[in-house]
Design brief:
With 223 residues, the chain is mainly beta. It has three helices and 16 strands.
């Protein structure tokens, strides 16, 4: 599998607007593999990426039904809410990666996670600081808190723009630009909603839900 990121001269500010003219330049991918036993709720989940000289932009659109968000602080456990995730390894010779996890209310969790070699060597993942987290521009279509759970069909979007300087700070020099290949995966989950589910873009071959499988990442190419 492969996803190609389209380039733009300058990204607009994030609006969580799937139909914004700038986003029409981007290819759309589907988070459509629900490989594990779950509640049977498999919301249609799509994602797009763009980039300019300074930032990588990510947008998700979810046609959901059982929507909940109670995490409200940076680094809260958002995977238990209605959540979308983008894990990406930016180095050519390492599967160390960022795990961008964001709920429908725009709250994010983010670590610099370990490659398999780093894990075997006993290293520990690195928490991205709140100060660094504030460099990520975020927009979301739903309120920050969604509780009680919405139990009718609901479409929601989240968009965030990540400065390439954040990658450089946590991984060292990271290449980006036309022809460069990163590796990653995209996910949809909702561990503590009324209808738990776990979906992926690239296949993940584990007996139980586990998104932290960099060996299953696939190609993300800068166009």
């Amino acid at each position: 599998m492969k996803y190609t990121i389209a380039s733009v001269d300058k990204l607009s500010i994030p609006r969580a607007d799937w139909d914004h003219p700038q986003w029409r330049k981007a290819d759309t991918l589907q988070v459509s593999r629900f490989s594990w036993e779950d509640s049977g709720h498999h919301p249609r989940t799509e994602a797009r990426l763009l980039y300019d000289r300074e930032r990588l932009a990510v947008i998700f659109r979810v046609e959901d039904h059982y929507v909940r968000a109670v995490a409200q602080r940076f680094q809260d456990s958002v995977c238990t809410d209605s959540c979308v995730e983008f894990f990406v390894a930016p180095l050519p010779d390492s599967l160390a990666y960022f795990n961008f996890e964001i709920n429908c209310g725009g709250t994010m969790l983010l670590y610099r996670c370990l490659s398999p070699e780093e894990r075997e060597a006993g290293q520990t993942r690195i928490l991205v600081t709140e100060e660094d987290g504030r460099t990520i521009r975020i927009a979301h279509s739903l309120p920050r808190i969604v509780e009680p759970e919405i139990s009718i069909p609901t479409t929601w979007t989240v968009e965030y723009h990540v400065p390439f300087t954040l990658f450089h700070k946590y991984f060292g020099p990271t290449p980006q630009g036309k022809g460069v290949v990163w590796r990653g995966n995209f996910y949809k989950c909702g561990d503590r909603t009324s209808h738990p589910h776990w979906g992926t873009w690239a296949p993940v071959d584990t007996p139980k839900p586990n998104f932290h499988t960099p060996q299953c990442f696939d190609r993300i190419v800068f166009g």
